[in-house]
Amino acid sequence: MNRYSTLRSLVRIRQLDLLLPFFSMANPLKLYLNCIRNTLEAAMCLQNFPCQEVERHNKPEVELKTSPELLLNPVLICRNEAEKCLIETSINSLRISLKVKQADELENILAKKFLRFLSMRAEAFQVLRRQPVQGYDISFLITNYHCEDMQKNKLIDFIVQFMEDIDKEISELKLSMSTRGRLVATEFLKQFI
């Protein structure tokens, strides 16, 4: 009996070990962010490369697109139709464009206002573009100089953390706006009682 129960507990432990990866897949946001993190780690092998057309110029090739041989294939990672990430890579620069989830009209307005607020302060972020790529809400541009000045892991962590926090911020804004609207409506309706 003792051997049998020990064997049975070992089998259960082994079954739990096999099922553990499936439990980690329960959070689709985590999988989405891990996929983006892994893609950014692979794509952030940037090096200094001067412009081939103009001497002593070093422009981000992902922006100019003057030499197709210096561009890599863009990677599109979608969580769903409303939430996606486009990663475009060249030899000396990397552009990350994000489409933020906007489930309803209120979230659409809040996301636009919040992302516009961030875009106005693009200098403070250093890697944030003022104008996003067409069809996306916000874009980041990382050049080889950013990779030399900052740690690559910290840049990747910043972008992934930004993506994680933007949903939370918009949800909190929506909740606070709904709460405030409810309070204003109750105060207004108290006049008629």
From TrEMBL:
The entry's keywords: Actin-binding, Cytoplasm, Cytoskeleton
Predominant location category: cytoplasm
UniProt-recorded Gene Ontology molecular function terms: actin filament binding
UniProt-listed InterPro entries: ARPC2/4, ARPC4
GO biological process assignments: actin filament polymerization; Arp2/3 complex-mediated actin nucleation
Cell cycle found in the keyword field: no
Compartments, as annotated in UniProt: Cytoplasm, Cytoskeleton
GO cellular component: Arp2/3 protein complex
Top-rank lineage group of the source organism: Eukaryota
Record keyword Cytoplasm present: yes
One matching Pfam family: ARPC4
Function, in words: Functions as actin-binding component of the Arp2/3 complex which is involved in regulation of actin polymerization and together with an activating nucleation-promoting factor (NPF) mediates the formation of branched actin networks. Seems to contact the mother actin filament.
Annotated PANTHER family: ACTIN-RELATED PROTEIN 2_3 COMPLEX SUBUNIT 4, ARP2/3 COMPLEX 20 KD SUBUNIT
UniProt similarity note: Belongs to the ARPC4 family.
Protein known as: Actin-related protein 2/3 complex subunit 4
Organism of derivation: Heracleum sosnowskyi
